[in-house]
Write a structure and sequence with these properties.
This protein is α+β, with helices and mostly antiparallel strands and 269 residues long. The protein folds into three domains: 60 residues, no CATH class; 79 residues, Arc Repressor Mutant, subunit A; 105 residues, Beta Polymerase, domain 2 (2-Layer Sandwich). The protein contains 16 helices and seven strands. It has a four-stranded mixed sheet, with helices on both faces. A three-stranded antiparallel sheet has the order 1-3-2. The N and C termini lie far apart (52 Å).
Length: 269
């Protein structure tokens, strides 16, 4: 196989180093998803190379490399825990592992995680091949769930819970009466946004709306119990959240924060 063929195979399979493609796919004669297989066959088949198959595939796969595409082709390794291949992979695993009894459609997950569908599909293929997730088809939909029988599932769930888990856990526990918006700010939000720094030792949560203080602190206690890390809640009314003279609000809006729950969007939908 030519060097050009190996490089193209690496591109199609999402590998940054062609050596990985040679060692883990070509030499082991691995199967790939049908779409990738079709592209590879069109590029490498002796019957088609003479017909310009390689050139046609290269042209079909050529995209202008600008900011529109760079942001979605592959995310950087997450600053929260850079052992994962990408931020998208970590978030996909987090959502599935923290909801082990539920199935989710690929399109639904792409919307929930704000990830391009094509990018999420590549991560799904890798995780499915590794046995970390399970999938099935229902009509035209592909449904995914965590493979809880995998030997690494329990340890991986614990790891994701204390790193990426706050986004899901806080959203669930702080869905209390009167909460219009819930967001995480402070050091965890900064690491989640990719800002390098020491691991967060607590989770700062802002609830926008009119909530009962007892409900608020009960939610913080539940989140603390699930995450194993202190959760510090504060409250602001909708008017205060829109007030630029509020010192805390100004500080939050000037730094990284992650909105994990917005009931106003649900009502509008």
């Amino acid at each position: 196989m030519s060097l050009a063929s190996v490089n193209l195979a690496a591109d199609l399979l999402g590998h940054t180093d062609p050596k990985v493609t040679i060692e883990h796919d070509i030499r082991q004669n691995k199967h790939v998803n049908p779409l990738t297989a079709e592209l590879l066959e069109a590029a490498f088949s002796p019957d088609r190379r003479n017909e310009g198959g390689m050139l046609a595939i290269r042209r079909a796969l050529t995209l202008p490399i600008n900011e529109r595409y760079l942001s979605v082709m592959r995310s950087e390794g997450p600053a929260l825990l850079p052992v994962f291949r990408s931020q998208h992979q970590a978030e996909l695993l987090m959502w599935l592992m923290l909801h082990p009894d539920q199935e989710f459609g690929v399109s639904d997950l792409a919307a929930r995680l704000d990830v391009p569908l094509s990018t999420l599909h590549r991560e799904v293929v890798r995780l499915d091949a590794a046995g970390l997730i399970a999938s099935r088809t229902s009509g035209r939909n592909r449904l995914l769930r965590a493979n809880t029988s995998h030997p690494a599932a329990r340890a991986l769930t614990q790891l994701l819970e204390v790193t990426f888990g706050p986004k899901a856990v806080v959203a669930e526990e702080f869905a209390i009466p009167g909460a219009e918006q819930v967001l995480i700010f402070g050091s965890w939000a900064a690491r989640y946004a990719g800002q390098v720094g020491p691991p967060p030792h607590d989770i700062d949560v802002l609830v926008v709306g009119k909530v009962d203080r007892a409900d608020l602190y009960d939610a913080a206690d539940r989140a603390h119990a699930r995450l194993g890390i202190e959760v510090n809640p504060v409250v602001r009314t909708t008017k205060q959240w829109d007030d630029p003279s509020d010192a805390l609000v100004a500080q939050i809006k000037a730094s990284a924060f992650a909105v994990v729950l917005d009931t106003r969007e649900l009502v509008e939908a």
